[in-house]
Design a protein that fits this description.
two-stranded antiparallel sheet, about 0% strand, mainly alpha
């Protein structure tokens, strides 16, 4: 039957829309990493551009404030996306985040660092719905044979959005328009996406009005997720929290996010303070590692499907292999960077590129493993692990503030890189030992007898309906 399935179908439209959401969402959050360098500059490219050098002491706190809000709704977002469908939560969250992006210049002018932090916290609260909702959509739209490359493609949107954001932010900040127009631009892009998704987005194949019956059957037969709307799944919290494969994902997610977001927020500062690049060169070079991440992610994703499809490795074995690629290689690069002698700026940039780009292996490692072990609760699992992981996302950059007391001291940066490398290695080892590619027993719906004790609730039709 598979030869009847179109190469481009309804599922691919949904995938492209999710990619666009991730691209814009990551662009919004990453734009501050370079934008704040221009915001606190004492020498703007045009005298009409407002700058706020007094924010310099609060820079690391401002960069971490996004994640204060980001962790709050993670678990709840996954739950309500599974119960009510993720479409309208994706739309509302990105719409509000887009409006607050456009309000950044006003809020920093009126309320200083406090206003900017409040703005970023609200954006974080909204974007807390992004990953759990995206995972929820993917669990309904991605057949197993295509899971690695589809999930890999969708989640490369983040690094690509990051790299483009850094380049665009640096370019606009260096013109007569100045840094405020970066945030106006992302606000407009986000609202445009919301408008398109209103008409084109869909929670699952059974709700899609124009999908072919062949494609719908192909997807529903190969996602391993419950599609019967008479079955309402209850979240098996005890089973999830006592599951070692779940903890393997969570530990890897925490270790990965600590390193990823420490580098994302601090690479521009490292480039400026240690390597002495100006803001335009800084933004372009800061973006280069994430462009490499995107390219490598698009290579590794189909490679993972090939390894699984050819039965070279089991599903779990493939996830562990690529997860190690995504965590061990960045750790080696960071260790080398930490001990690199002064005066080797080009080698330092190469090592930074390797540290970030090879991290793409996690896209087909732990990052998609939620769907492998429990397609029915993938949104909730992503909410749980992403919530825990993003404590590392804001603690890591905050720790830099206390470690790097002198931004030009390379020894202090070495400490930052060693901490991230250690967490990468430890989390990779934990995933190898306890990770799994098998669907867990607690994912499966049971028959009606004993349903209340086995995680499901059957919705019975009313008499006379």
């Amino acid at each position: 039957m598979h030869e009847l399935i179109p190469e481009m179908g309804a599922r691919h439209v949904q995938i492209f829309l999710l990619f666009a959401a991730g691209f814009i969402g990551y662009g919004m959050r990453a734009s501050m990493s370079v934008g704040i360098v221009a915001m606190i500059s004492e020498k703007p490219p045009d005298e009409s551009i407002p700058t706020y050098p007094e924010l310099k002491d609060d820079k690391d706190t401002i960069l971490s404030s996004f994640f204060w809000g980001y962790v709050v709704f993670q678990i709840g977002a996954g739950q309500i996306a599974e119960k009510y469908g993720p479409k309208y939560f994706l739309m509302a969250s990105l719409a509000i985040a887009s409006c607050f992006s456009a309000l950044i210049p006003y809020m920093v002018a009126q309320y200083g660092s406090t206003g900017l932090m409040v703005n970023r916290v609200i954006q974080g609260l909204c974007q807390g719905f992004l990953f759990p909702s995206t995972h929820c959509v993917l669990s309904k739209w991605t057949p197993l044979a295509e899971r690695s490359r589809i999930a890999g493609f969708v989640y490369t949107a983040g690094p690509l959005g990051t790299s483009v954001s850094m380049i665009v932010t640096g370019f606009i900040s260096d013109t007569s328009f100045g840094w405020p127009y970066v945030f106006y631009l992302y606000g407009c892009c986000g609202l445009l996406w919301v408008l398109i998704y209103t008409y084109c987005g869909c929670n699952k194949p059974s709700e899609h009005k124009t999908i072919s019956i062949e494609e719908r059957n192909y997807i529903e037969e190969n996602t391993m997720a419950v599609t019967d709307e008479k079955v309402r799944l209850k979240t098996p919290w005890t089973s999830i929290l006592s599951s070692l494969p779940f903890w393997a994902i969570l530990v890897s997610h925490v270790g990965n996010n600590w390193g990823f977001w420490t580098l994302l927020t601090e690479i521009p500062s490292f480039m400026s303070s240690v390597l002495k690049y100006d803001i335009k060169s800084n933004s372009e070079l800061s973006a280069l590692p994430y462009l490499g991440y995107c390219i490598l992610g698009l290579v590794l994703s189909p490679a993972s499907d090939l390894v699984i499809g050819k039965k070279i490795l089991s599903l779990g074995g493939s996830r562990k292999l690529f997860n190690c690629v995504g965590l061990i290689l960045p750790a080696i690069s960071l260790i080398a960077l930490g001990y690199l002698p002064t005066g080797h700026e080009t080698i330092a940039v190469i090592l930074l590129v390797l540290a970030v780009s090879t991290n793409a292996g996690v896209l087909v490692g732990f990052n998609v493993n939620h769907i492998d072990i429990s397609p029915n609760f993938a949104g909730t699992l992503m909410g749980l692990t992403n919530c825990a992981a993003n404590f590392g996302s804001f603690i890591g950059p905050l720790l830099v503030k206390y470690i790097v007391t002198d931004p030009e001291d390379e020894f202090l940066w070495r400490i930052v890189f060693m901490i991230s490398a250690g967490l990468y290695i430890a989390s990779a080892i934990f995933f190898v030992i306890f990770g799994s590619g098998e669907r867990q027993d607690w994912n499966e719906p049971k028959n009606e007898v004993g349903a209340a004790n086995n995680g499901i609730e059957l919705i019975k039709p009313k008499l006379g309906a």
